[in-house]
Amino acid sequence: MEEHETVNFLRLLSEESTQSTLSSDSCEYYQTEIFDQLPSVQASRPEQSRHGPWEACEAHHGGPESGERISQGHPSRGPRDKTSEEPLRNLAMCIQGKRSARERRKMHISNIGFWESWRRSQIISRRRVWAQMGEALSSLLPWRHTLHIIEGRFGVGVKSYFVFLRYLVHLNLLHCALIWGFILGPTTFYGRGHNSEPLRFGGNDSVLDFFLGSGYLDRSPVFYGFYTRGSLDLLCLNTPLLYLAGILTILLLSLIMVVRRTTVGYKHTWMLGKRYSMNVSYKIFCGWDFTIQDPAAAALKHSFIRNDLKLFLEEQSFSLRAAQRTLGHKIRLHLLRVILNLLVLSLLGGAFYLIYFSTKTSQNESEHYWLVSLVLQYLPPITITFVNLVLPHIFRKISSFEDYSFTTQVNTTLVRSIFLKLASLGIYLFFVFTTTEQQQHLFQCSENKFGREMYKLCIFNFLATFCATFLLNYPRKLLQEKYPTSLLARLLGKQHFLIPFNVLDLVYSQTVCWVGVYYCPLLPLIATVTLGATFYVKKFSVLRCCVAEQRMFRASTSSVLFHFMLLLGLFMAAATLGFNLYLYPYWSSCGPFGNGQTVFNVTEDCVDKLPRAAETTIRYLASEAFALPLILAEIIIFTSYVSRRRANQKAIERLKDMLVMSSSDKRFLVKQHTTMLRRRKITNRVHSAEDAPLSH
């Protein structure tokens, strides 16, 4: 029996292959007649008309020599085929195909050397160990089961809020570790100096101090004034430098983590693009997990698939309605949107004036009853919370008249509301700075005064969340359960978990934490506790008081917007700190930079005592002469990233076109195969009919 040598044709991609917008001829089937009839070949035929068919094939494969070398069965010296080392469970094939692949791998291993076999077995073992470690670490994530329940009942949009909240908890825990390592730990071990008094609760201290941040808390490690220059007083290793290094490390690390999450999410959204559409047949026929045995898990999986299909149908129906708009309808719609945006701007102006009035009123130092004094102290946080509670609902109603898709409505409300929250916080900070500068002689420590304002904002934000859940939402739910037919219950309606407003609360609280961490170093610890409590409060609110939204929205774009808004809050915190340190260098009369010391002269003294080379390098990096090469380097890096983005975009578009043309080829081949079978049946019938008389 003759042994036929198997011929393997491999597809080689050249650099020019990424320049075309349509898939070029693969030249693997040039020996067949049906190849010229494929839709993909017909689509790219005008481009190949400039060259001969064999020239195109040689250009695509790198010349006749490479084609001859491949056809002879010698593999090219390119990168190693990773599919041969891919775990079988990750391959998209049936069980029988995986068994065949496993047998082929065993036969291939028997033909290779000992060291190559040992290397591949080690690679597989390491991958298994890393996969098991990843599964173990993922099982340690808090609230994992709760997130699955919420996703099954309310969709991935509500789940994205709780994932975002968990991310902020982890971020603040990292901040707490940095605060301990740079600030609180050295102060604890080395002491605060000989003139510091022991911390005791007594005298004029009261419970109200924990709400106002005064008295006992004002002398505690919570605020800036506690950290004086103690026994750790070396020239380049002292409390002021460690304090500044800790705060800058927190801001820099937060910037890296938030930018990374934002860019990864944006890359995922950009790769999907507007041409992305969910494969409904895949969701219906292949979306089920056959390893599920628990009825509750099966119900959750049903909910996942149902919510995905609802989201897809919602987007498709809006696209059809948007495509049917006439020119007159579009003009009226854009005019309506302009009027509604003017209304939004007027509401924002009124809110900013209200914040200014409340801040000015709260600075009145006249004597009042303790309850009135407490309300006046909390008047700016109350006003900011009231404005941030009412106006986003008005923005939500306004966006419903602008005829956007539900996802776009959510994102529009998010943008308007985050501008409201950040601008209101910025106006409040500006008035606090100006009033503190004017009344500096009235305070022993101006930084503690500013830290108390941030402390009150953080505490009141959590109290507002707690009271809104248990004093408004839960009684409303009880009213609907006890008296569902009453007039009040019908007017209030069912409660829905409004994702934009809840996300804005998280961004606002984290921005307050970043702004106040320099003046209140333990604010990340307070934010961690309040965010952890907020998770359980919101969990109770969602699972007990709310019903699922009838209209779904895609959470991928909104999650990118979540982190982008968080990035804006971080920039605002950095700008506030830089503004304070640059314009008010001698403002401090307490804390690590007290007694006439500033950030600049402390760092200057340290740099002066460094070795000559290090001192020259640091002064050059801080000078204006370093600005030009830094700008040039940034331009080069930015240009390279833009070039890579364009190349990746062309490659992605080409791959999308290849997928479309491959599906067309499959349909064409199935049609040709069906036609061939029909002709064969007809031919067999004719032959059988001709042979019948001869047999008689």
Automatic annotation (TrEMBL):
Localization, UniProt: Membrane
Membrane topology, as annotated: Multi-pass membrane protein
InterPro entries linked to this entry: TMC (IPR038900), TMC_dom (IPR012496)
Transmembrane segments: 163-183, 241-259, 335-357, 369-392, 413-434, 516-537, 558-583, 620-642
Keywords of this entry: Membrane, Transmembrane, Transmembrane helix
Biased composition (Basic and acidic residues): 47-68, 78-88
GO CC annotation: plasma membrane
Similarity-based family: Belongs to the TMC family.
UniProt-recorded name of the protein: Transmembrane channel-like protein
Organism: Amphiprion percula
Taxonomy of the source species: Eukaryota, Metazoa, Chordata, Craniata, Vertebrata
